[in-house]
Amino acid sequence: MSKEQMTTTADDAIITVRNLSKYFDDFEALRDITLDVKRSEVLCLIGPSGSGKSTLLRCLNFLEQYDGGEVHLDGELIGWQDISHNPRKPLSGEALRKQRQHIGMVFQHFHLWPHMSALDNVAEALTSVKKLSKKKAKEAAMAALTKVHLEDKAENYPANLSGGQQQRVAIARAIAMEPQVMLFDEPTSALDPELVGEVLSVMKDLAAEGMTMVVVTHEMGFAAHVADRVAFLDSGRLVTCVPPEEMFGREPDDARVRSFLQTYRERNVV
Amino acid sequence: METELFVRYGPALLYGFGITILCWLAGSIGGVIVGFILACLNRWGPHALSWVIYVYVEIIRGTPFMIQLFILYYGGPYIGLVLSPVQAGITSFVVYGSPYFAEIFRSGFNAIPKGQIEAARCVGMPETRILWRIILPQMLVPITAPLTNFFIILTKETAILSVVTVPELLFQTQTMAAETFTFVEPFLALSLFYWLMVLVTGWIGAKVEQRVTRHLKRA
């Protein structure tokens, strides 16, 4: 991509995705995705299973190596050393780790480290990556846990926390690193309906504080009320990316979007 | 039962027990270290190396310990490797044990959910730190029992070292039996010594298991 394109699109975009493609062997998981995320924006990715939402999200922090196109965070190419060179060469482990520190990630199944207390889960990277002293790390970890209203569960092991609490610890673990953007991969899909609310409310707080967020979700209510824009993916393609009022407020033009949202309408979700 | 025999042969038996423990501890700890390195190389090293490791594991696991010991002790000098019986005993223990330990560690690595490792990468943790802080402490849970088991098996494998004249427990017991024409007493003593080793090993294993599974207990 040329320099002037960068500057014209990057006015206040923090993530720019250009012509992104990704293959799993012969399967085309993502085709030619182009998308911007602005600073402090909340972007929700919706779509049917297997449509590439999670793959797209995982390309943003290079958990998946994308094959074509570019992902930039704050102007910096993610994952690859330089894309003019063919085949592409990935960044060194050290450089990739630097980039990932700016990108927080929350998973569907939490992926807490079960042998560490909630506090240690949050403090671990603060000592080992940010090189804070033990004391400073504990304080910062406690502050992050307080943000997700779990200060009284700091000493609990994950096995002694509910799913909603575990996911909130996972959010605290990510935000303690003070990332520029947060990625959420179906953060409430593994939770009892009763526990979904507490996680969504923490996410709303984050959004209100101005955190840039990309959220893969099936929670249409969250998408409708919290997102600034909603992107619909189908078969690895970006079908549309519009404000929620347009996505949910009127009958969508695209037949695939219409039939997808219909299933939610029938359940009175949106 | 002639208890007087034990007074006479007690020092020799105790010396043999000492040699047995030396060979067993040095050999199996060496085996653990080499096995761990093999498992790490297999997982993180270049692909070609994992083939070499695979062949090594298959050969050592596929041949009897006694043959390996013979080859090392009697064959070694042909390639300039002259070892004392005890040195040969410890070295062959390391060679014999390491593939089994490597396999135990391999299964341990595989027992850690991939998502936990991804989560660690997402906060920028280096791979070595992930190994020490995330993988190792957790893999102790599934591997403690098989490790303890193999340590126990190895206690008794030390008896084979007597064939290359390592003055270990069985060697001393046989000497005692041959010199005194008694069999019940020496071999009873021998069994008690092994049983003591197995008992202590099992007890330590259980303690370690208790300790490493702390976090799994629900409050």
Automatic annotation (TrEMBL), chain A:
Domain ABC transporter: 15-260
Superkingdom to which the source organism belongs: Bacteria
PROSITE patterns in the cross-refs: ABC_TRANSPORTER_1, ABC_TRANSPORTER_2
UniProt subcellular location: Cell membrane
InterPro entries: AAA+_ATPase, ABC_ATPase_HisP-typ, ABC_transporter-like_ATP-bd, ABC_transporter-like_CS, MetN_ABC_transporter-like, P-loop_NTPase
One Pfam family per UniProt: ABC_tran
Membrane topology (UniProt): Peripheral membrane protein
Chief location category: membrane
Keywords: Amino-acid transport, ATP-binding, Cell membrane, Membrane, Nucleotide-binding, Transport
SUPFAM superfamilies associated with the record: P-loop containing nucleoside triphosphate hydrolases
Gene Ontology molecular function, alphabetical: ABC-type amino acid transporter activity; ATP binding; ATP hydrolysis activity
Any single Gene Ontology cellular-component annotation: plasma membrane
SMART domains, per the entry: AAA
PANTHER family: AMINO ACID IMPORT ATP-BINDING PROTEIN (PTHR43166), GLUTAMATE_ASPARTATE IMPORT ATP-BINDING PROTEIN GLTL (PTHR43166:SF9)
Similarity comment: Belongs to the ABC transporter superfamily.
UniProt name for this protein: Amino acid ABC transporter ATP-binding protein, PAAT family
Origin species: Cohaesibacter marisflavi
From TrEMBL, chain B:
Domain ABC transmembrane type-1: 17-205
Primary localization: membrane
GO BP annotation list: amino acid transport
Pfam families: BPD_transp_1
A molecular function (GO) term: transmembrane transporter activity
Entry GO CC: ATP-binding cassette (ABC) transporter complex
The protein, known as: Amino acid ABC transporter membrane protein 2, PAAT family
Family affiliation: Belongs to the binding-protein-dependent transport system permease family. HisMQ subfamily.
Transmembrane regions: 12-39, 51-72, 130-154, 187-208
Cellular location(s): Cell inner membrane; Cell membrane
Keyword Phosphoprotein: no
Source organism of the structure: Cohaesibacter marisflavi
Keywords attached to this entry: Amino-acid transport, Cell membrane, Membrane, Transmembrane, Transmembrane helix, Transport
Superkingdom of this protein's organism: Bacteria
Topology relative to the membrane: Multi-pass membrane protein
